[in-house]
Amino acid sequence: MAQGVRGTRDFYPEEMRLRNWLFQKFHSSSLSHGFEEYDSPIIEHEELYTRKQGEEITQQLYNFEDKGGRKISLRPEMTPSLARMVMARSGALPLPIKWYSIPQCWRYERTQRGRGREHYQWNVDIWGMEGIEADAELLSVMVHMFTSVGLTHDDVVVRISSRKVLEEVLGSLGIEGDSFTKACVIVDKMDKLPEETVSAQLSDLGISDSSITTIQSVLSVTELPGLRDMLSPDSMAVSELERLFQLLESYGISEWTTFDASVVRGLAYYTGPVFEAHDRGGELRAICGGGRYDRLIGTLGGRDLPATGFGFGDMVIMELLSEKGLLPDISSRVSDVVFSMDESLRGAAMEVSSKLRGAGRRVDLVLEPKKMKWVFKHAERTGAERLVMVMPAEWDSGKVRIKDLQTGEENDIEFKDL
After folding, report:
1. 61 and 40 assigned to the same domain
2. 54: confidence class by pLDDT, cuts 50, 70, 90
3. 215 touches 187 (CB < 8 A)
4. How much is the pTM?
């Protein structure tokens, strides 16, 4: 049984080095904007996800009953866990909250390019701020990460809209409540399904053909002035979006962004601006996405608190970076390989290794008797900078021989000076 569970991944050391590199970019981008890291258990009460019915995510749970008869689920996303944590300390947390995490998430769905059944997801959220400034700050964090890995606005575009656009359109057509929630899930698939399929699914909700035509025409708009013409001169959704794009200019990231009314995000809890990042070529799934969710805690039985955030998976971004040739070479895992030329010097080699490690070096001590040819190949394989050789005559005089593996230069160094 050499294969893992379908839809899951093993991370061999070379893959783990790349994963750690990516996660460090997540950390540094968050910290540069003043966010703090948090975490929560990978299992949650199933009810945390099923209270809001009609969403696709409730059909993708890895859920089970534990030995105490409790209905449990592996987390499919982090936001409900965050909402639970905030609700648990309601009134005690100083606002605004600026938190981030990199959890592993699980969804039972069809595996495809850029989508497994488990993935890691960088989550960045701001709670307690009603203003659109919080949404702009999140987009700044996101673009900071893109630039930190070498991507440019020629590689990535962030498409922005607002759930209030859909609320205004559907509200004018008398589509509200549960029908609104289901319509959002369907409309979110407009770029993935044929137009006639989307129309048929909307029709199944009891929406008339003329209303479907109106919905599709509004969601095809790609310029804010055109959207105002289609909605109303005093549209709150358009005014808020105009303000958001002004703020993005102040951040100097407007070239990364564009308005796209078709972005609605399928989850029912979104209430305001929503956004997704895509590769410019349109060949991959969305790199990340998010938006404002001011009423999520209310659905969990608590008191609502304004909030906005995004989730950024680890799989699609790695595909894009690979295609662009931007993944770093992280072959080196040690700085020194220490090798004793004689079995009687094994203890001496351990002393040398300990001294180097105490000085902050990353040391791989050759633990078995090996020929010199093997040691050189091993040093090359580990990407070591130096080979530190403990040799009889040199050790008797209190020295070790160090070979620089880049230049080939060799020097005898006093042990006390290591």
Report:
1. yes
2. very low
3. yes
4. 0.88
